[in-house]
Specification:
Layout lengths: L7 E9 L4 H10 L7 E7 L2 E6 L2 E5 L11 E8 L3 H13 L14 H13 L5 H4 L1 H6 L2 H11 L9 E4 L5
Antiparallel strand pairs: 1-2, 1-5, 2-3, 3-4, 4-6
Amino acid sequence: MDKNPPRYNVQIYIYDLSRGMARSLSPVMLGKQLDGIWHTAIVAYGDEFFYGGEGISSCPPGGTMLGPPDSVVEMGETEVSEEIFMEYLSSLGESTYRGDRYRLFEHNCNTFTNEVAQFLTGRPIPSYITDLPSEVLSTPFGQMLRPILDSMHVAPPGGNVISGGRNV
């Protein structure tokens, strides 16, 4: 009998929602350089999982309207089975990551990806992604835009909602 449990590859898909515009416009608008406006998803068990205003969703890797990712970070492997992972996602979708709990700056796709990456691999996602909201909000223009941006709910089309739809 094999005593080594199966291992599953875990990746982070990173998308620049600005399609490169943040790099050119951020110095003028924010007074500091931002390389992108990041959306992230976790890829494991043959699917891409992400969080947005509709809750937790999944699709085939690269299957949202965002297309292929701008970059991929290899996070390593996990021994967590797909069944346990799906139970974990279901639990998150009914509590912490319901669609109505989405907040662009404080509780977004990147906080979800970071939490799930740590659950699966024990490793956080890159800090340049998790630090982006505080970078934007540390500028006068970011503070001015906050009320408008706080009302936004990002949910890339193309995914199937797993759980946690908007309960409003």
